[in-house]
Amino acid sequence: MLTARNLTKNYSNLPVLKGVDVTVNKGEIVTIVGSSGAGKSTLLHILGTLDTPTSGEVWLNDVNLTALKGNALADFRNRHMGFIFQFHHLLPEFTAIENVCVPGFIAGHNKNEVKKRAVFLLETLGLGHRVDHKPNELSGGEQQRVAVARALINNPDIVMADEPTGNLDSHNARELHQLFFQLRDQFQQTFIIVTHNEELAPLSDRQLVMKDGKML
């Protein structure tokens, strides 16, 4: 489903990625692990089109993402990809359901349908009783679940998660990883997860290990 070929990334004269190949299948949960500075987050941002490679290509469902530019790229990203970050990036003035709806509204989907899906996702994630709460009224684990629902609102082909448990305690981290498997089983959702969590990374379907900008 997702294929990256010979990705390189240089910052000035510093090579960060040195010819990385990645393939991810539909319904697969793949973790990317490695020490700090190995290039994990850079790779994830390039796979998610949040950054551009110096050379190489990224394909998602037969679309060459590295050939898309400007509004076409932004629209494709919004419709086909979801993102979860270590820090939830929820809008503090918006309720949980409003935060979840934002990408759906940006995509131009019917507002009533977006709201229905947002409620469904929040209920699926155990937050049906918190839809009208603002982020400062939610625990860290609850905020991250809202961020997961937001990532899923447009029914994306793939979800990119960058250290999604990095700001959570061990209990909430374990629950979030279990949630990813629940979503994979229920919706055939595909995940690529960058993580330092040595306990949870092996639970994924496949681990990709990076070192010094290369895949081992």
Automatic annotation (TrEMBL):
Any Pfam family the entry gives: ABC_tran
UniProt xrefs under InterPro entries: AAA+_ATPase, ABC_transporter-like_ATP-bd, ABC_transporter-like_CS, ABC_transpr_LolD-like, MacB-like_ATP-bd, P-loop_NTPase
CDD domains in UniProt: ABC_MJ0796_LolCDE_FtsE
GO BP, sorted A to Z: lipoprotein localization to outer membrane; protein localization to outer membrane
A cellular component term, taken from the record's GO annotations: plasma membrane
Listed Gene3D superfamilies: P-loop containing nucleotide triphosphate hydrolases
Gene Ontology MF terms in the entry: ATP binding; ATP hydrolysis activity; transmembrane transporter activity
TM helices/strands, residue ranges: none
UniProt keyword list: ATP-binding, Cell membrane, Membrane, Nucleotide-binding, Translocase, Transport
UniProt domain ABC transporter: residue ranges: 2-216
Coiled-coil ranges per UniProt: none
Keyword Transport included in the entry's annotation: yes
Record-stated family: Belongs to the ABC transporter superfamily.
Protein name: ABC transporter ATP-binding protein
Native species: Chitinophaga silvisoli
Lineage of the species this protein comes from: Bacteria, Pseudomonadati, Bacteroidota, Chitinophagia, Chitinophagales
